[in-house]
Amino acid sequence: MTRSRVTVLVGHFGSGKTEIALNLALDLAASGTPVTMADLDVVKPYFRTRSARQLLADAGVELLAPEGEHIHADLPIIVPQIRSRLRQSDRRLVIDVGGDDVGARVLGSLADVVPVAETECLLVLNFRRPSTPDADRAVAMVREIEAVGRLPVTGLVANTHLMDETTVEVILDGLRSALECGRRLGVPVVAVAADEAIADQVRRSTDRTVLELRRIVAPAFALPRRRSTGPLFVVN
Prior knowledge:
alpha/beta, 7 helices, 9 strands, globular
């Protein structure tokens, strides 16, 4: 899942793609890999990678995102440096794209410099969100995002959750829907995500790759502190 030089994460608002993007970037940095995180989320800003700016800086992750008076702007502001980073072969690039096809339009504007052969585009799915209640809607969303983002989705990440009320069965139910979605699209489900508190239980219940996630991003008024110095993105 994480071998491509460029990893693009897309999905509807509330899918959890920002958490996965942050965990991935921080784990890459912890392994000694030069990594840049690009925040292209221009959809309504509730969770954004730029909210974790200091955490990323402390870990050595370069963040490309609006600054100063535009830090919370709900506008299609593209940091110019992203074009050079897309061309720079000695750095890993993780891109957090805004929710649904509206956010994907920003990605589409960079299509001329995206190295398709070196890029994986992962769609994060949370089947407990109104925008993706079932496989039918998820498939339609993929087609919408691909059309405007001008980049094919290469894999799915099952991330069905209910925040603190998430159970193993909620996760496994979402995984089943994601597998059906992948079957229809002809793309693999590359992983199922789970909070660190129940990740081991999920591993015992499936032979799929499990992404063990720590919750990092929260609204600005409640950003949690990092709980340990261990890896933030664990693949079994």
